[in-house]
Amino acid sequence: xxxxxxxxxxxxxxxxxxxxxxxxxxxxxxxxxxxxxxxxxxxxxxxxxxxxxxxxxxxxxxxxxxxxxxxxxxxxxxxxxxxxxxxxxxxxxxxxxxxxxxxxxxxxxxxxxxxxxxxxxxxxxxxxxxxxxxxxxxxxxxxxxxxxxxxxxxxxxxxxxxxxxxxxxxxxxxxxxxxxxxxxxxxxxxxxxxxxxxxxxxxxxxxxxxxxxxxxxxxxxxxxxxxxxxxxxxxxxxxxxxxxxxxxxxxxxxxxxxxxxxxxx
Length: 265
Known about the structure:
The chain is mainly α. It has helices at 30-52, 57-82, 84-87, 104-121, 126-151, 183-201, 210-226, 241-260, and strands at 7-9, 14-20, 24-29, 165-167, 205-206, 234-236, 239-240, 262-263. It is globular and about 55 Å long.
């Protein structure tokens, strides 16, 4: 059957190149630009939300620093594990994070763990801070994924659909791979649905932290099914690494919500 129409993306995935001492030549991509913009979006949301709760803004910056470092480590680790056949042969490449290669869900786990450690050490209200940050996290995910769409870095399955994406720039990883599912666009749409739900739940659940676990469950649920449209390496029984991470998020979220969550009276 002929494809009636599809969306072509011919933007150069790289914005500009430059060089740094001891590192060498670097390339600023749309992925990196919107990734940084996404992190900034989370920070802006978190500082404003914390101010309304009477939490010192400087403490939020401290949490953000730990969360960014933990997020980068977690995101890189997930990518390296998923592409171990490559990195086992070139282990030094594991450290070259500026070249590219991160996994969003690893970033979520890493940022949450590192940020929570900082919050615990400073005896701040962990559940409250996690809850008020959730909508900002979803905005950050949405913004960061814009770069992924431009670059075509996350390859998806062939799609004979009017809304399929086809990449026409030769520097795109998806160049000449034909029209494919806009998997990242599906995820962005799901992010906004989860944003709406979690935002409406703020201040309505006891104990604090339940909105965050709702986010984990909902994001994990949606990402599990969206992942079937992507071309990532298969692990077991037709499932990819992200499927198992999604299931982990869903199970953890549902368990905590079912055992602890209740509506505020």
